[in-house]
Every structure is written in C-alpha cells, then in structure tokens.
C-alpha cells in the first residue's frame, strides 16, 4: 500500500494552524496554505556527525535501539469526528514527517524558513541546526483505536486488552490510556520535544495529546555496549534487561509472530507504559542495608546479595548466617525474576522524571516505565508478582498506565506505519 | 569566618530523614545517625574526564561559566522556626556539599554506600558513577531572608526590592518568590537533579522547596565559544547577550561593587527569574514574515531585519521599500535593545521547558528566563520596555517571578556562602 510521500492537505493545515487557516480558506489563510503547498520544493536542513538510526525496517526503531538518554512520550486521543480515512491519512503524514526528522530534517521540505513569508512555517524551528541526535520515533495503537466506527473492531489484536487492575494501583485518568502513542527518544531533549510537538501539530483536528511525559535519564540499557544507569532510588536498574544482542531472547520475548493470532502484528510488539511515582523522601530515610534487602542487590556495584558482580545470576537459595535467604523473598529482584514469574521477560526502556514539586516541597519524581513484550501478559505476570508482595511497594505509587499494540516497521519508502492493519 | 568542613549535625539529620530519626534520637534512629557521623571517613567517588568548574573564587560559578545544557532550579522558603544560627549552619552545610558535588563527589564522605548499613545513606546515589558534568551550583538570597527575626533587616541590599508589577503579568504564587534559591546547571540533567535533591534533603527542617523548575535546553550563550541556541519559538535567542569574554561589559553590568551601597555584596550580583509560558499553538499559526517582524530578526540565520549576519548590530533607522523601518518599532529586538532601554544590558542564562500538557492537549511549554545584573533595575528597564509594547506579548505569559541577591563567591576552603552577610 503506497501513499504519496508528502504531507496531506490536512497535515499541512495542521502545521499552518487549522483553527486559523481553516476558517478562512477563501481568503488570506487559504492563500497562505496554498503557498505552503506550492513551496514543498525547498531544501531540508540535513546534518551529520551525530548518531542516526534508520526509520525503515522490519521492526520499528526505538525498541532494540540502544536506549537514548532522553525521552518525550505522548499519548493521543482521536477526535470524535475522525474517520477511518482520516486515521490512515494521519498515519501517512506521521510516517512522512517522522522519517524526515529521524534524518535530522524538518517535518517538510519547506520546513521552518523555506516556505512563503505569507504562510506559517511548516516546522517550528527549534531543532534547526541540531543533528539527528539518535532520534527514534515509535508509534503504538491503544485499545480504543479498534472501534466499530473506524471499521477496526475486527482487527483488534486478541492480545491487546486493557491491563487488569493491580493491587496498590492509584491510577489518574490524566496519566492513563490513549488511542495512539508516540515515543520519541534522542540524545538531545530538544530534538525529542521538537518531534512530539510537530507530530502533534500535524495531527490537529484528527488527534490531540491526552498526556505526555518528559524523561531526563534512561534507566535501562538495551544493549550490552551500554553501562547500566541508576534510577532515583540510587540503584542500578535494568541489569537483567533483555539486550539487543541476545537475539534468541529478543525473538522469543519481544517480536510478535503471525502464529500469535494476529497476522498484521507480525514483527510488531506490545508496549506497556507505567508512570511510577517514587516517594523519595521516605526512601531516603531507609537504612542502607534495608534498601539493599528491598532491592535484593548491593547499592554500589549492583551485585545480587547472594554474591558476585553486577551480572552474576542471583542465587535465591543461598542462606545468610542465620539461615534466612540472603536475597529476601519479598525483594524486588526476586519477585521480578523469570524463575518466579513463569519465565516472563521484558525489554525495558524506562526513564527518570522530575516534574516540579508538591505543596510540601517534595519533588514529584519517579520512573516512567516502558516495556516492550510479545504479549502484554508477560508484563502482567511480572507486575502481579510485584504488586502483591514487593517490599518496594511502600515507596512507589503507580499513577499512570497504558498499553499499546506497536505495529511492525515501515519496510521502505512509499509505505506507512500501520499499513498491514488496513490491508 | 571559618566553619568546620563537614556537615552539621542538623545537616546529617536532614540526610538521614529528620522526620524519622529526629524523633528517636535516644533509640535506633539516634544510633543510626551517630554511626553516620562516625562513618565520615570513607572515600568519595571522585571522577574525571568531564568538564568541571572550580567552586571557589571571587564570584560564584554558574554566572559567567559557559552555559551548560541542563538546569534544575529551586526556590526555598525558610521554616518559621529557623533562626539566624540555623541559617548560617544551613549555608555552611550547603557550601560543604555543593563544593563536593561540583567535583563529582557525593554530598559527604560516606556518601551513598560508604556509611553504616544501619544508617540511611547520606547521598541518594543516582549520580554515582557519573562525572562532574560541568556542574555549577549558585546560591541566592530573596527579599524575605532579610527579616527582623533573623537580625538581617539592616543588612538588606538597597537594590533588592520585590520587582514591580509589569503590564500583562499573570503571576502564580506557586511560581513566584522564595527566601533562597539554588541554581544547578550541568551537562547531564541527572547530575543537576541530584544536586537540588540532596541540598533539599540537607535543608530539612530549616528550609523547604517552594517551587522548582527543570530546563532541558539552554537558550542563551554566555561565552563567545558557544553557538547561539534556539528557543521554542524557533528563533536564535540571546545573540546580543553579554559574554564572559567581554570583561568590560561584565564588570560594568554584572558584578556588584562596594560603591553600589552594600559592601557585603561586592563581587556578587542580582538574579531575576521569570517563568514565561509560551502560547506555542498560537505562535505556530503566525506567518513566517510576521514572526520575523515580531522578533526583528530573520528566523534562519538570526540576522537583524536591517541586514547583515547574526552578529551585525541592528540598524533601527533603515527603512523598508515603503519607508517604514525594516525592524518594526514594536519588535522584540528593538524594545530590548540597550539604545531603547537607557543602556541597560543583562547577562542571560535561560532554559527551554516543557512540563506536560493541559487538558486541551497543548504543551505547557516556554522559557525559564534567568538574568544576572549588577542592579535589578537593569531588568526592570528592559521588561518595562517589553511589557508595554512588545509585539511578542500576544504569545507569552509571565507566570512566575523572583529576584535574589547573589552573594560573592566563597574565596577558599573554610569559608561559606554568605559569610560577608554575617560579618
């Protein structure tokens, strides 16, 4: 299925500000938009000397790509008036703009300064002069997208169910759900913000941001070439994460297959997002030894309390001097371990966040958890284990939650994200 | 005036969680704290290979230091019970911890993992393994600090007045004022966040965060060695900023002198902070030519509309073909220009921010404006000029505001920030 490789008229209207230009199509606004369309022959602002990842491929980028340092994530809701054709056009527009931005280009050929002075610029311009910065843009489809009115109810993946309620969940609607999602990861936050902002503009009238989250520091490695980072509890996080280099594990636990029951999802995956507020002031008052028992690892080196180094496999049977397990039964590392959760493994891509402070001066801080898995049940198994018993629960609150079907990659120019859904 | 070069007992209590440990000084909590104090002989986690700036000097760092990429800024209010001695002790504790952190060390010698397992760690640990990352920590004193009950009313700098109300101000109390401020700038946001978090912990019971702001991208250069960055309107910002290399301008416009009327402020400066929300959705609908007329500069290269390149001095008298000035009279660049504001110049250190979105899906985005000047009147002159007439006002809202006296630097080990105030 091919689409014209430029923005649709509605996409351009979004960039121009449909609220203004759309009301005046016969007048100056219309002329401005027409000029903008005519101006699609200017040159982009390509750049180099900075990591860049190909947009096209069997799988979407931003999943097994080495986790970049910064994140801007947005969940969108479709407008009530959005039709099936509108959705396809939006996905085609997003594909066009995302592919360009991951190359360090502007959202369209005329971009921020190459259009008519009588038209609003297509691109907002804050990433002009900045290199690609390793930008990846990853799209997902929420359960609400598979609606009767869009003719997509029959196409809903059987595995895409809203997540169950977990013990201790304190979810806020403003941080939960969404019909679509866009994950922008980059080494420069300005590049990630620019991507979400301009994709949101393109969506104008068709979809609007429901919630969004900036993450300033990655908390997972997705490649063996990366050093394990620390979360805001001060511990190394994601040591046991699936790494891109573990090709057998990636195939087994990450990529959906045709035999999983939804043919159009083959090569895709499922994304779970959880906004986990950390009660850092309480945590900071916990004794070091107790912190380590809660996590099940040593704080400095990240080694399991059963001994060894960071990457030594934990030995849950090894006893302490008094005969109790060195790694407590209710420790985080044990309750999340594949041996306890029926073999489930996740590919995590989390980020630390700090969003100001509350009225008592406490930082609104935590972990924006993202995991990719072949079946959301993998996450459910881990979270069921943690939610019931994890000693860490006293110090965290799950305040946001969403699940998305992440379609396979766009194989080549001419195709758009989600084409197999409509095929 | 010398202070012991270690944390005070109250500072250690803050790190240990005074709320918990303070209530149980005779019991386990007290023992834990005593152990923490005894453990102050462990080794810090020094590191290298990353920019670092000296903490000690005639002036505080973080002012003419080349602007780092990321910011965490916090305004604090003193607790009602805080005495003059408490304040001095807090400033001594902050000095001790800040000096260490700018070297890439933890807040104390025992740090995150070097203390007793029976005590809460002194350091929260999320910056373990991270280099100094160019961290600078800059302290300021708000008008409320100069209170009778602290014996400081007579010491208030004559130049430190609350800012006047400007036309169009829409200030929210939650983003305004503060008795103290701490500006942490670094090339790694995790390092800046770690600094604010741990200084806030040290202050426990003596001062608490009133408001705080993360900035993800600098919008000013403070050195001629830096490329001019872009703000979220997509324009180069701060081209005409005072640069560290302009030593005459820095001396004339930035550093306070004894002859300015407040001897203890000599070598210090005044800091103005303004949270400026940008109405980016409206801005994005403005024609390119109109955007450029509002700013007074070309969007691509940043050259003034009177011609030349980015660093060409604007010629406000140069007419357009129809005889009107090429740089409109109400343009931002003209109204902020020294020739229009009575010669006033500022040393700016602003940052872009995005703090999620509102219920309509619009990004809560803007500019966190910081400027340093020898006299806050320099800012007032510029802002009076802008607030009344700037064509940009339709697209911005000043929602937060604060002013601080920034004391001179700490000359050497053994002294503390603000010593001259108490001399």
What are the key terms here?
six-stranded antiparallel β-sheet; homodimer; alpha+beta; 10 strands
Task: Provide a short characterization of the protein structure.
The structure is a homodimer of 423-residue chains. With 423 residues, chain A is an alpha+beta fold. Chain A has helices at residues 9-16, 18-21, 28-38, 84-102, 189-202, 247-253, 280-283, 288-295, 332-335, 376-389, 419-422; strands at residues 70-78, 136-141, 180-186, 207-215, 217-218, 269-278, 347-348, 351-357, 363-373, 396-406.
Would you write up a description of this structure?
The structure is a homodimer of 423-residue chains. Chain A is an alpha+beta fold and 423 residues long. Chain A has one domain (57-83, 128-423). In chain A, 23% of the residues lie in helices and 17% in strands. Chain A has eleven helices and ten strands. In chain A, α1 crosses α3 (28-38) and α4 packs antiparallel against α5 (189-202). At the A-B interface, α2, β1, α5, β4 and α7 of A face α2, β1, α5, β4 and α7 of B.
| Helix/strand order of chain A | HHHEHEEHEEHEHHHEEEHEH
Strand content of chain A: 15-25%
Q: What is the CA-CA span between the terminal residues of chain A?
A: 8 Å
Question: Helix amount of chain A, in percent?
Answer: 10-25%
Number of strand segments of chain A: 10
Q: What is the count of helical runs of chain A?
A: 11
List the helices and strands and how they pair.
2 copies of one chain form a homodimer.
Chain A: H1 9-16, H2 18-21, H3 28-38, E1 70-78, H4 84-102, E2 136-141, E3 180-186, H5 189-202, E4 207-215, E5 217-218, H6 247-253, E6 269-278, H7 280-283, H8 288-295, H9 332-335, E7 347-348, E8 351-357, E9 363-373, H10 376-389, E10 396-406, H11 419-422
Antiparallel strand pairs in A: 1-3, 1-4, 2-3, 5-8, 6-9, 6-10, 7-9, 8-9
